[in-house]
Structure formats: C-alpha cells, structure tokens
Write a structure and sequence with these properties.
Layout (H helix, E strand, L loop, with lengths): L10 E8 L3 E4 H7 L5 H6 L3 E4 L6 H14 L8 E7 L11 H8 L6 E5 L5 H15 L4 E9 L14 E9 L7 E13 L2 E2 L8 E2 L5 H20 L8 E4 L5 H9 L13 H4 L6 H12 L5 E5 L4 E11 L19 E2 L2 H7 L4
Parallel strand pairs: 2-14, 4-5, 4-6, 11-12
Antiparallel strand pairs: 1-7, 1-8, 2-3, 6-7, 8-13, 9-10, 12-13
Helix pairs in contact: 3-4
Length: 350
C-alpha cells in the first residue's frame, strides 16, 4: 500500500533530449514485408528514429545528460544520484549508470543503479531520486530513460520501436525549479504481456493482449489513483502525457479518462520518432515543458509491460519562462532517411 506523500522539496531544474538523426518511414517497412500499408497508418506512426550502428542506450543517455547539464551552472560533483532506465542495456552484468556518471564528471560518492521495468524504467528513476531529495539524502539527482528499442524483423513492433534518450536533473527547493513535483503514485501487477529472456535478441509479446488488460488497465487505474490523491479532475490540467507505444493508445485512453484533445498537444511525438520505450514518456514531457508557461498543471502517466504505471503531478514554476528550452523537433530537420537494408545494418541485425 502506498502512503500518498505531498512533495514539497523536489522539482525539475533541467532536462535534455537526444534523438538520432537517422529515420525510416514505416511504409518502407510495410513495403519490404509486403504488408498492408494501412497497418502502420492505423498505429499513427509515420516514421521512427534509428540509432547508428555504434550508438546504444549509454551513448544516447550521455548526449541527453550533457544537454541537461549545459543549461545549468551546476558542478556534476554535486549530483548525488544517477539512475538510468532502459530495456536495451549493452551488458547483462555491468552497470551502465556508473559509466554515465563517470563520463559526466560526477564524484564517486553517489547513489546509482540500472533500472529495468520495460518502458517505465525512466519514470521509476525519477521516483527514486525524488524520494531521496525529499528525504534530504541528496540535493540533486540525474534520472535518465534511454533505449535503442528492439524489435524482431517482420513483427508489428518493428513499425514503432525507435531510439532516443531523455535526461532530467532534479533538485531541492534551493534550486531554480522549472516545475515542482507535487505527487506521484504507481499501479502494478504481474501481467505477462511483453518480455525478453536472457540471450534472446528480440522481445516477445502477447499481441492484442498487451492492450486492454495491460496498457489501458494500468494507465487508467494509476491516473485515477493520482487524481483521487490530489483531489483534482482531468479538466484541471493544462497538459497530459501518456506513454505512447503508438499514437492511437494515448488518444484513446485520454478520452476514456475524460481529458480533451487539446491537453495532449505537444505530447504525441510518437508519430515522428516511434516508441522510445524507457524514453517515451520523458521525451514527451520534455516537449510539453518546452511549450508550458508558469503555473500550469501537467499530468504524466508512464506504462511498462510486466506490468505497471507511474503517474506524476507537476506544477510549472516562474523559472520556466527564463529556462533555455531543449530543442527537440529541430533535431528532426537534418534527418537522414534509410532504406530497409541500411536500417538493418544500423540496428546491427545484418
């Protein structure tokens, strides 16, 4: 049982996003496998980001973290925790978060761990760091969601699995918050809808079973639990972010929960980058923060197969107006589009 805690000492002080420059159109994938071109169209994903052959979740996490740090006059040695969420870690045994901390110049005395909870591992990192800051254990913490998302060729996941990373630096009330964290809750269950065994190159999934009894159940129950704890209704929020395995799921669940289409504005980047797994919700939140103004309410609910959701209530602060925004869509401008063969090479499949 979760004891609902009202946070008063935690906020976002900076964030960074990295999207690889390579892209593949989903109709190219459909054409290669002679699939119905309406299949990717029904998912609402026109193209997805593709990491280069020498990129992985660590290199992308480093790029996003460097962007976040570049917007602050903060000595990395003052960061007391580094937690990284991913489902595409390069090692079965060896932490990546410590390598990231070392690359960023963090001091050796810090809390650290690699987190695995499918697509919600990045938001789990935020929860852990927020709790540490609220308790007074640390003043600053780095939470990252990064994935070179895996998908088996000729599987429906291939239309959506993208690559990228988002990094968030959280700080206590002595820092200049872009947005303060008011509350967070989670909703979890043992639902075997998506998994990847040791030594397997690609994940398996339960097809349509991953929808109603998993994604929708967890996202709806977690969001409603948060709304009940904070005594707010869907109409009270300026923006809402839901995990986006495709475009149709977040639109459908938002409608079921009573949110309006305008509240989803700026959060449906999945159409152009695909599902970044652990980075999905966090990249969408970053784009919302790019457009939000002072004293606006943001609700975000992630989802991770296995299964669980994390919900957060953020309230933007006055410093958001002076914060130098993290460019996201501008990273799309120099995109290099791949044919199917080159796409497989980038993903180290050929």
């Amino acid at each position: 049982m979760i004891n609902p805690l009202k946070f008063s000492n935690v906020g976002i002080v900076s964030y960074g996003v990295y999207i690889p420059k390579f892209r593949i159109k989903t109709n190219i994938i459909a054409e290669h496998w002679k699939k119905d071109p309406l299949t990717p169209a029904s998912l609402g994903v026109k193209e997805k980001s593709v990491a280069d052959w020498d990129e992985d979740c660590l290199t992308m996490a480093l790029e996003a973290s460097k962007v976040a740090l570049s917007k602050l006059k903060l000595d990395p040695k003052k960061i007391g925790a580094c937690f990284m969420g991913s489902e595409s870690f390069p090692y079965a045994v060896k932490p990546v978060s410590t390598t990231l901390a070392s690359m960023l110049g963090m001091k050796n005395e810090y809390f650290s761990s690699d987190l695995q909870f499918a697509c919600k591992a990045g938001t789990s990192a935020i929860q852990i760091i927020a709790s540490m800051i609220e308790s007074g254990m640390i003043d600053y913490g780095l939470a990252v969601g990064s994935d070179k998302s895996q998908s088996k060729p000729n599987d429906v996941l291939e239309f959506t699995a993208g690559s990228g990373a988002a990094a968030y630096i959280l700080g206590n009330k002595k820092s200049k918050w872009i947005a303060s964290l008011k509350q967070t809750v989670s909703y979890s269950s043992d639902t075997p809808d998506f998994w990847r065994r040791e030594k397997c190159s690609f994940p398996s999934h339960a097809g349509r079973f991953t929808g109603v009894p998993s994604y929708f159940k967890h996202v709806k129950n977690c969001t409603n639990a948060l709304l009940n704890h904070i005594n707010l209704k869907s109409k009270d929020f300026d923006y809402v972010v839901f995990h986006s395995p495709n475009k149709k799921f977040p639109i459908k669940v938002s409608k079921q929960l009573g949110f309006e289409k305008r509240q989803l504005r700026h959060s449906l980047l999945v159409e152009n980058i695909g599902n970044i797994y652990s980075g999905s919700s966090l990249i969408s939140l970053a784009n919302v923060l790019n457009h939000a103004k002072e004293n606006e309410k943001i609700l975000i609910t992630s989802y991770g197969s296995g299964a669980g959701s994390d919900s957060f209530y953020f309230l933007t602060n006055k410093f958001i107006s002076s914060y130098k925004k993290t460019q996201i869509k501008s990273q799309f401008k120099n995109s290099i589009y791949l044919n199917y063969s080159d796409y497989l090479k980038k993903m180290n499949i050929l």
